[in-house]
Amino acid sequence: MDYDPAGNSWSALPESPLRGRTGAVAVWTGTEMIIWGGLGIPNGVQSTDGAAYLPPAT
Fold it and tell me: pTM above the 0.70 mark?
């Protein structure tokens, strides 16, 4: 969920292009969240892909 403090409301995030995983690395750049790697759920296969999420401007 994405929280809008100005409107005191929540909205759903867009569907992720990534499959479920555990142990991924994530970093906030100041403008977007970048996530990559981790172990696939439920098979435990190492993931080598990633994605970025850019929240809507407030």
Answer: no
**Residues 6+ away with beta carbon under 8 Å from 46:** 37, 38, 39, 40
- CA distances 47 to 7, 12, 20, Å, are 37, 25, 10
Predicted pLDDT at 32:
94
- Those residues of the chain that have pLDDT short of 70 are 58
Q: Classify residue 32: in a domain, yes or no.
A: yes
Please state the domain count of the chain: 1
